[in-house]
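Before the break, one more example. Copy the sequence into your notebook; we will annotate it together after we see the structure.
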Amino acid sequence: MRAYVALIGVAVLMAFLAGGTLLLMRNNERLVSSQDMAAISQLKLAFQREVGPISIINISSYYYTNHHFKLTSPIYALSEFDRTDPSFYAHPGDCFKGVPELQGLFGHRKLVLWEEFRCGMRPHLPSEFFEEPPFLHPSGISFMYLAYLTGRSQYREMNWIIDRLPLFHVRELKNITELKGRLRGVFLILSELSEEELESVARGQGSVLTGKYLLARLIYKHAQGILEYRVYDRADLDQFLSEADYTLSKYNNKRLCFFRDEELCWSPNSKKILERLNISQIFIFIGCLFLMVVALVGLRNRLRDDRSEEESKRLALQTLTHELRTPITSLVLESENVSRDLEQLPADMQDSFLRMSSEIHRLQRLTEASRQYLNVGRKKGKVQLNPVQIPSINEFLMDVTRSFLDKGLIFKNTIEDRPFVMDSYWPSIVLKNLLENAFTHGVPPVEMLVEFSSGKLIVSVKDQGDGAALNGLKIGQEFQKGQKSSGTGLGLSIVKRAILAMGGELKYSKRPTTFSVILKELKISTQGV
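Here is what the structure looks like once it is written out:
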């Protein structure tokens, strides 16, 4: 199993390395060759020859001064006031609030005129009010849009709006109801740009890629201050590049880019990547896939074999349990017959017979419990308990450890003797199983320590091993066994399930190897858990 897991790990690692190589080739600008750059330049020229723009917009013809140009940039539309709703300044209320603090700044006189107008101190604005700078109110809204928001009829008249479109901030145009479906040319295109895209245009960026357009700037040698763009439909661009060797996207500094062209990112398409692969890289990639397939097939076969082996073990145990029931039943009947004449036996024979009879009954209970346990594994049922009061907990523990004392068990019992309510059978099975495992697989000496804590009985079985034999095992899982074990792997599974059924805990620690059983006192009325 470990070999298959290691093989899968190697295959996955190689696949990641191969994939990383492909990703590096796709996105690493250091791998861009002069042939790549020449090919991209030729592709840009071919696009200009074969695809015509849907429009040419001259922004400078409408926004020809610095004051006008501020109406195209989102940066200048930031509020200097603390109002969350700048449209507040289109209606009466809090007149002149914050205005005195701006005295001395350019446009302060215009701001005062507006405050007087909105607060009803003057009936109308001067005729040249909107045509003179500044065009933006300190709230970040144009004076034109504030006039529109007042709702006054003269500021809602279509011809008045159309004649003064360049005096609105471009991002306000899409909010004017009267302009729905009427915008054309530069105003339509600018109104559809995002703030990031507007800022790119305001900076005079050479190419701006949006969801609907590609804006390519026209450069005039003798008039470099002119801001003019060819506007291409994005669908035409995508169609042109569908058969090309490279793809185009907006540059994102959080992602790798094969070749950055200002704020654009060129990347080779899948066909181009395959052309750049050499023979060794192709073989590595195919080898990774082959190793992964082999490892997965082997793992599947191993899991199938393990499942078949577990079923075989379970069948053998069920058969053995079934066959043992008949001779054990006969032994029980014979021991009962002999017990009728127990008084006729010598005193020393009576003691031996009682111990033998106890072991026969224990064997009978073990056989029945094993049968139930095997059924539990299939039906996910419950372990049946029979809580009784043990008159002497010390006598119970001595009975459990008697056969192990001759093997060298060090029994440390510091508790005062007392009665204890617990199952009549499972605690002895649990402790004997742990002791047997310690003597069989552990390093002597083996110790058993007993104590009471918070009303719970705690029994710890410890040997001097380091627990290495149990490395990688899921303690308590069926058919899980140590490296040196030749058993079925059911011992600790029986122990754990019985302890949990009694409401207890099984704790395990290494160096030295220690299993601790924590049992709480049961109620005699409990019929089953």
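Residues 25-29, 483-490 have pLDDT under 50 and may be disordered. Residues 279-340 form the longest helix (62 residues). Try to locate both features in your own notes.
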